[in-house]
Amino acid sequence: MGVAHTPGRPYGWRARIGLLQPGIISDTNPFEFYMMAPEGVQMVLTSLGLGGMSVANYERALAGLEGPVERLLPRKPNAIIQTGIPPLVHAGWGVEAELRERVARLTPVPYITDAAGSIAAMKAVGIRRVVVVSAFEDPLPDLIKSYLAHAKVEMVGHVNAAAGSDLESGELPLLTVYEAARSVFEEHAAEADGIWITQASMPSAGVIAELERDLGVPAVSSAQALMWAGLRLAGISDRIDGFGRLFDVPEFGA
Fold first, then answer.
1. Residue 61 in contact with residue 48, Cβ under 8 Å?
2. Count of CB atoms within 10 A of residue 129's CB?
3. How far apart, in Å, are the Cα atoms of 237 and each of 2, 9, 10, 14?
4. Which of 84, 121, 174, 175 is surrounded by the most beta carbons within 10 Å?
5. Full-prediction pTM beyond 0.90?
6. β partners of residue 19
7. How far is C-alpha 235 from the geometric centre of its chain's CA atoms?
8. What is the CA radius of gyration of the chain?
9. Which residue(s) pair with 157 in the sheet?
């Protein structure tokens, strides 16, 4: 789908979406972007330079946000999306408004973070009571729960899909992610009305449609939500088959 190209046109002839990722190594993020991207949409990726998962590194990465944004701007992005839940939930509710203000001083290009994009996506498909799938360890799940509560989304369950594995989150098989999501949803089926697979470095896009079909509820992932948000903020309303009902929503925030 996303690998098609029209001869004679630049790859990003419809839109160029800037991606700010926390880590320095890229694997799952660009792979899943191009799984979902319609023809004519290109990623421009740079790193926030996060040196590891610690509060000091989270604070350093957010404090230096302007540098990566300025690196992107000469490539003329139509929207900027930012992955990385841990720095946001450690900073606490309200940090995204601050980050948007800082980016707006540099550029009028729309900017959105993982948490804001995912929350908008959950609301767009009607999720209010969610089970969360990640590879995060304590205290991150509790911080995520508190953050979602501010947005009036209740986290009713969480599972660490990487528990008991020595694999990095990006190496987890899709089947592992699917089984973790199905298990935690079925455990909380009386309460939950949807699934959120967070941590964009963890494979997710390939199981969204299957989870929705098998469980009958909407499923959102960070990678999918950011693709949806990036496209909609860039003015592209394409319906993309195979990656969940979210892409039936033609406008951001709808």
1. yes
2. 14
3. 15, 20, 20, 11
4. 121
5. yes
6. 45, 81
7. 19
8. 17
9. 131
